[in-house]
Amino acid sequence: MTAPATLADGTIVLDGSSITDTDAIRDLQSDLAEWRLRGHPTIHVAGAFGAGSGFDAMDALGRRTVRLNIGTLIVIGADARVMYLAAELEGSWDGESLPVADINSAYDELKRLRGDGVVILVTGSTDGTMPELVERLKESA
Q: Could you give phi then psi for residue 13, rounded to 5 degrees?
């Protein structure tokens, strides 16, 4: 992950766009939860990752997002939908988890949600499109 980037509108981007390792994503979620504890609205944007155990890992990370009280989870693509479903099934959320089709749809949601002090964590996916999302966020500020 690179250092946090503060955009012109005050949005803070944590770039984990090349990270697909479950343990590393868990660590990044913990970092994001620390931002929340300091009073920042938080968003985790995630795509599908891993092979074989990817389903179980995505399920666990979706549930962990709720337990860490991260404000919003945006899940990109049908292959990552289990993360969205796990967050919804965790029970304490209603609408804070958003499934979107692709990074264009995620970008549109982020345009709506971003703002001064909002912290966005972008983690990687096996399709390799997440760095593009981070660049679009940085360019649009």
A: -110, 125
Query: Any residues with CB less than 8 A from the CB of 14 and at least 6 apart, and which?
Result: 1, 4, 28, 31, 32, 119, 120, 121, 122
pTM over 0.90: yes
HEC states along 70-90?
A: CCEEEEECHHHHHHHHHHHHC
Q: What confidence category does residue 133 fall into, taking pLDDT thresholds of 50, 70 and 90?
A: very high
CB 11 within 8 A of CB 116: yes
Hey, how many other C-beta atoms are within 10 angstroms of the C-beta on 95?
A: 7
Least confident of 22-26, 47-51, 85-89, 122-126: 47-51
Length of the chain counted residue by residue:
141
Number of structural domains (the chain) is 1
pLDDT tens column, 61-70: 999 999 999 9
pLDDT at position 96, please? 84
**CATH classification of the domain holding 9:** 3.90.190.20
